[in-house]
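Worked Example 4.2. Read the sequence first, then its C-alpha cells.
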Amino acid sequence: MFGILKIAYKLLVNDRAKFAALLVGITFAVFLMIEMTSLFAGILSRSSATVTNIGADIWVMDPAVQTVANNIPMPDTVLDQVRSLPGVRFAVPLYSGGAQVKLRDGTFQAVNVMGLDDTSLFGRPELKQGKIEDIFAENGFIVIRDAEFSKLNNPRVGTEFEINDHRGVVTGIAEVASSGLFGIPTLYTTFSRALQYLPNTRFTVTYILVEPKEPGDVLAIQTAVQRIGYVALTKDQFIAKIANFYKYQTGIGTNILIMTVISFIVGLSISGQTFYTFILENLEKFGALKAIGAKSHELIAMILFQASFTALTGYGLGVGLCAVLITLAKLRLPDYAALITVGNLTLAFLMVVVIAGISSYIGVRKVLRIEPFDIFRG
C-alpha cells in the first residue's frame, strides 16, 4: 500500500500547475471561511466585553434587556430586595450609560461611563497607573487603555476634561480583558458620581451584581429574582443571550452565514472541477495500474490520498494566511475585531473534509469505470 500511495503522490505533484490550482482553490476557500467566522466571533466577544470585564457571577436586570448596552434602569427597591434574598453574599449596583466628553483641545468624544459601587468598587478594572483610592477624589475617573484609548488624546494621570458641564480628572489608567464593540472609550467612576454628573431617568440602577454564598445557591437566587419580576442570569448565560441576539435578531449572523456558504461553494467548485480534470488527464495511468494488477480498493486509496493531501495542505495554508493577515490588521487597526477560535477552525476543517469527500467521489467514479482494454486500445 505504501508503494501505491507513493505513486499517487508523484502523480499529484508531477503536474505542478494542476496541483497549484487545487491548493489555491482550497486555500482561498479556507481563508474566506475562517476570516468570516473569525470576524463574527470577534464581534460576539466584544459585544459582551462589559460582562467579561466586570466579572460578576450573577447579573440582575430588567426582563426586556437583550444586550449589555440595552440599559433599562431598575428602582432602588429592587437592590434592597435582592440583598435580602437567601444565598446572596452581597449585591451591589452598577451604573452603565453614555456621555459626551469635551477634551482639552475642544473636541467632543462619546464615551461609556461605568459607575461602580462606592463601598466595594466591585468590578473595578486592573489599574496600571495611579491608585484606585484616587477614584474617590473630587472629579475622579479611571480611563481604560484599549483600542479606543487614543480617541481621548492618550490622556495621562492628572489630565482634565469636561463631562456634561462637570470637570473630570483622570486619576488612573487601567486595562481590561476585552475592548468594546462600538469603538467608544470607557470611563470608570463611582456610582454616586455617575448619578451626579450624568442625566438620569427616575430609576438609576442599570444592573445589580450578585455574588452567591455557594455555587448551589445560584438557581434559588434566579428563581427568587424571577418572583419579584426581574431576571437573574449567570455570567455565561448573559454572554450567551447577547450572542443569540446578534446571531438571530440582527443581520450580522445572516450575512456572515451567507459569506461562509459562498466561500464553501467557491472552494468546492474550484477544487472539484480541477480535481476532475486531473483525474481525466491521468486516466491512462490509472488504467495501466489496473491492467498490471492494482485492485479497485488500491485505486480508491490513491484517489482518497490525493484529495486528502491536497485538502489538508490547503487547509493549513488557508489557516496560516488568515492568521498572518489578522495579525497584521490588528497591528495597523487596534480595534479590528476578528478572533480565530477552535470553533472556527473546526467548522472550516469539516467543510474542507466535505470538499475532499465530494472531490474524491467524483474521481473514484471515473477511475472505477475505466477498462484497461479501452486504454491500451486507444
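Now turn to a second chain, presented in exactly the same format:
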Amino acid sequence: MLLIKNATVYTMEDDKVLQNTDILCEGGKIAKIGQGLSADGAEVIDAAGMVATPGLIDAHTHAGGFDLNSPDLNEMTDPVTAQLDALYAIDIHSPDFEEIHTRGVTACCLIPGSANVVCGTGFVAKTAGKNTIQDLAVLHPAVMKCAMGGNPKGYGKRGKAPQSRMGVADIFRSTLRKAKTYMEKQEAAGGDKEKMPPYDAQCEALLPVLRREIPLKVHCEQFDMLTVIDIAREFGCDYTLEHGWACNLYADELVAGGGPVCFGPIGIAEGYGELTGGDVAYLKELDERGLTVCLITDGPICGPQVLAISAGDAVRYGIDHMRALRMITINPAKALRVDGRLGSLKPGKDADVVLWSGVPALETSAHPLYTIIDGAVVYKE
C-alpha cells in the first residue's frame, strides 16, 4: 500500500488541477484520490512541491528488440509476416528498455519494425516491475503492425515485390482479401471440421483485425495515409496512422476517417518525399476537430525522454498545455484500447503515477522524481 501526500495532481480525467491532494494506491490500483487521506501501514511519499500525473504512454516503440546491428523486430524475409509476434523479440534487460521507466513512461506499445507490408502483432506492456515481458504485458495482442511507403518498397532491391507504392497497396489489399475469404469459409463451415479451410497462420492472425478486435497500426506518411483509410474502409477494419508526417495536408480526410494519429517522432531531418512535414504544430487542427492524436518516440530511434519533449514542443506551437498532456497519457491509452486501465488517475485504474519536479510539457526543467507502476516505486531520483 502506498500513500502519496500533498501533490499537485493532474488526473487527466478532466482539465482540473487538484492542489494539495493525496493518492492512495492499494493492490496495484488507485483506491482513493482526495485530501487528508490516511492508511495504516502504508508507505508514505510526501509529494509537497511535486506534480503527479498518470504514467506516460508511448503508443509506438521498438525498444528492447531493435538493435540496429541485429533487428529482432524486423523479419525481412517476406513482405507478409502477419503470423509473427513482437512478444518474442523483446529483451527487457536491454539498455534502451531499462531506461524507459526512468523517463516517466509506464506503458508502451511494442511493435515489429516496418520492413514488411504486414509485419506482425504488437502488444501493450508496462515498462518495469516484473521479471519477464510476458508478466509485463497488459494487452496481447493489441495491434497488427503494417507499413506503407519506402520501407516495404525495399523488397524491390532484392528482386521481389513490392518495389512501388502500387505494389505495397496491392499486397496489403490482397492479404486482407485472403484472410476475409478464410474467415468466411470458417463461418460457413458452422463448426464442421470437415468443411473448415486448411489452417493458415497468417490468416488466423488477421482474424482479430477483420472482427475489429484489434486495429491495423500502419506506418505511413504523406498521401499513404489516404491509402490506409481506403483499405480500412473497404474491409471494415479499425486503424491508427503511425508517424503521420504532413497530416496537415489531409485534415478533412483524416477527421472523416476517424482513426487515431500517432504522430512523430518530432525532429526528423527534413529532406524530401516522406521525410517532410514532421512539425508537431500540424496536430493542433486535428486535435481541435476531435481526432484522437498522440505523440510517439519510435524508440530506439528517439529515447523515451522525447515524449515529454514532444508535448512541450506542442505547447510551444500553440497547443493548449492540458491538450498536449493528453497526447502522452489518455489519448494513447484510447488509441491502444487500454483506457479502462491506463492513461488517467481515477479510483479503480492501475496505480501508474509519476511524480515530477515541475509541470511536464510546461516547465522545461521538469523531470521524474518517482515513477510508480502498479502502486510500487520502480524509480526514485
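Notes for the reader: Residues 165-189 form the longest helix (25 residues). The chain has ten helices and 16 strands.
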